[in-house]
Predict the 3D structure of the following.
Amino acid sequence: MIRLLFLILLQTCLWSIELSVDVGGGMQHSPAKGKLIYKKEFWKDSFGAIDHAAKANFYGWIDISSNNAYLPKMRFEIFQAQTEGKSFIHISANDTLNGLIEAIESKLPVTLNDTEYLSRLQMSTYETILYYEYFEDTSWPTLGLGLDLKTFDFNYAVTIIDGLDFNDHGGDTVPMLFFKSSYERSDPKKMQKLALEASAKIYVFGDSDIYDYSLKAEMTVRYNENTFLGIEAGYKVSYFNIKGDDIAKVGGTMDTSGAFVGFVGHFK
């Protein structure tokens, strides 16, 4: 009897929940600048200084909310960057590999260290965010507060000569504080909307810190009773500063800030 009552209550709750889904995606024009420090024992204290030109990279997001005030909103974000350019590297190997470095340098017209080489960087971030948003039914800007779990990984390779690459990779999942505020205006007939949104994600642990700040504007028009479609554009600041052994397998700094533009849809 208790089980039956529980099932009836659960089914009633599910029937009464109405979901709203917002989606967006597009391209972010961002460079890759910074320094990746190798943490492998035999390459300890080696690094690659990266200065890659801006390139269009993919981003996407989906935001799910309900009419139940007790349930948090869920947001998922993805960003994938692939850049290529010149890097300066500095190799500091242990005694075992000193002979290898000497052998490589004997085939190069320049010294191995502090010389410019072609390099490639692949970076991906995946984020899952749970948050509550306040002041939605007022004329004030909304305020969102929550927790973001950011998963990121790097894959970095430097081509010394044909067939010889120095490469390393690493990544981790870290918790970040999430803040969001938005302000929306619509015409009297509610056929189009204009919105401004600012968000911030912050992580600090030990000597390491990661942060994302973004500011965007979006304009949407009414497609049907439950759907608005439009475009968004803005600027996002993304910065990693990972020191020591706080997190990840690759240390250093990385800046992939840049402007973005894409589509947006609101479905109820």
Notes: The helical segments are 2-16, 95-105. The mean pLDDT is 79. The first strand starts at residue 19 and ends at 38. The CA atoms of residues 229 and 265 lie 5 Å apart.
